[in-house]
Amino acid sequence: MSLRSKRGKTDCVIGLQWGDEGKGKIVDFLSEKRDLVVRYQGGSNAGHTVMANGEEFIFHLIPTGILHRNVKCVIGQGVVFDPEKFFEEVEVLRSHGVRIEGRLFVSRRVHVVFPYHKALDSLRERHAGEKKIGTTSLGIGPAYSDKSARLGIRLCDLIDRTTFEVLLAQNLKEKNALIRSAYKGRGFSFKELYERYADYGKRLVPFLCDCGEIVRDALKKGKKVLFEGAQGTLLDIDNGTYPFVTSSSTGVDGIASGAGVSPQVIGRVFGVLKAYATRVGGGPHPTEESGEVGNLLRERGGEYGATTGRPRRCGWLDCVSAKYAADLNDVDSLIITKLDVLTGLKRLKVAVAYRIGSKEVREFPCQVSALWKAKPVYIEVPGWSEEIGGARRFSQLPKNARNYIRLIEKLVGRPVSIISVGSSREQVIGR
Fold first, then answer.
1. Do 307 and 380 share a domain, yes or no?
2. Are 67 and 212 part of one and the same domain?
3. Is 240 among the domain residues?
4. CATH of the domain at 77
5. For residues 135 and 120, is the Cβ–Cβ distance under 8 A?
6. CB-based contacts of 150: which residues, under 8 Å, 6+ apart?
7. Got the DSSP string for 178-238?
8. End-to-end CA, the chain
9. Catalytic residues, which ones?
């Protein structure tokens, strides 16, 4: 049966910047009226923070929808999966009384992140010196590299002890030789890794599923599905600021392969955009403010990485890159987060173009060398001083805040459907 008639039953949440746009809160907000939430790419390098009932939850692998008791959640095969991190999150949820049995599933096809992936990640960064990318050193890139090189070990391999034994031996022969010869490291014990990860495999059996089958079955039954992205479009392996990117397809194009479904089932696409711009790690950030404004945004917005704790590089909203990301993902509407952080600033700047050498450009450059040289061309608009955390309707926002939203709509070419004005679940304006 074709699923084309079911199109529109799925929603997608995509980040339009360098990640950290506040997707966790938005997925939590949207999940309340969904039946199934699917995480389709990335790994434990993602950090989705949610404030629920006065408590803070930080998710790295488990979909944010798990906090709603009637929602089922799936980790799709586009994710690289760290069993240790997974069980840490499971224990946190259980300690808070969140029931996961029969609600949380992991694709048998996900590739497993091993300690040697993390070691290689860290060693490569350390030896790169000034050319380092600024990874989380959680093994994400090396795990995706093994996947592409057809050396990866999937969960379906992990639970087959014979297959796992052969594949782990092959991997360790190569990885230990590389670690010892190129990086002068110690390498890893086959026995220790085999026993520990075989045990993970045994514990994971109740969670295993066919992700695509679960999604297709849900759609056939008329259920509502939400696809949850991690990181942001500008970190996409193909379309981001390469090589300062993550190792997966972070945009809407990653959903089909990452969840095991046809592109035809992809319905509405929500693009999440922070009211200003942030970036963690290396790479160009044209609107970065290293002085007073940058520090103010960082402290007010709590701009420290949920995964690493690193301070984020903050700056004014960049609508050149935002329009590029919105067009690339064919976004239906925008979701603006952290608007409240801008309260009290007398003047706000928004980048509408870049000056590169003698030229003014409005297209987002492909070459990272051009982005390093890009100087933002700003327009300035008046800010507002009124607190907006209590606003629940667009009309309750100060005039200048409403004008700022309208300016974003004009520059990015998409309507704004949701505005977040604080960290709690309730601090949301729907339009």
1. yes
2. yes
3. yes
4. 3.40.440.10
5. no
6. none
7. HHHHHS------HHHHHHHHHHHHHHHGGGEE-HHHHHHHHHHTT--EEEE--S-GGG-TT
8. 35
9. 20, 48
> Got the DSSP string for 240-255?
SSTTSS-SS--SGGGH
- Sign, Cα dihedral of 187, 190, 192, 198: positive
Reduced to 3 DSSP states, what percent helix, strand and coil does the chain have, rounded to the nearest 5? 40, 20, 40
Place of tokens 């992205």: 229
- Looking at residue 133, what is its pLDDT? 75
225, 254, 270: which is the final residue of a domain? 270
Give the up-direction half-sphere exposure of residue 8: CA atoms within 13 A in the CB hemisphere: 3
Instruction: Give the Cβ contact number of residue 33 at 10 Å.
Output: 12
| Phi/psi of residue 64, nearest 5 degrees | -65, -25
CATH of the domain at 115: 1.10.300.10
DSSP 310: P
Three-state SS at 63: coil
Q: Are residues 42 and 132 in the same domain?
A: no
CA distance 243 to 235: 9
Q: Name the burial class of residue 337, with classes exposed (0-12), middle (13-18) and buried (19+) by CB atoms within 10 angstroms of its CB.
A: buried
Cα dihedral: 407, 50, 41, 248 (round 10)? 60
| pLDDT for residue 175 is more than 90 | yes
pLDDT in tens, 40-88: 999 998 778 887 777 788 899 999 999 999 999 999 999 999 999 999 9
Q: Is the peptide bond before 115 cis (omega within 30 degrees of 0)?
A: no
Per residue, what are the HEC states of 359-397?
EEECCCCCCHHHHHHCEEEEEEEECCCCCCCCCCCHHHC
State the residue range of the domain holding 146.
Answer: 111-204
- CA 287, distance to chain mean position in Å, is 21
* Token duo for residue 217: 């079955």
What is the count of structural domains for the chain? 3
**Residues 258, 268: Cα–Cα separation, whole Å:** 17
Question: Would you state the torsion angle of the CA atoms of residues 393, 397, 399, 402, taken in this order, to the nearest 10 degrees?
Answer: -70
Whether 2 is in a domain gets the answer no
In this prediction, residue 4 carries a pLDDT of 44
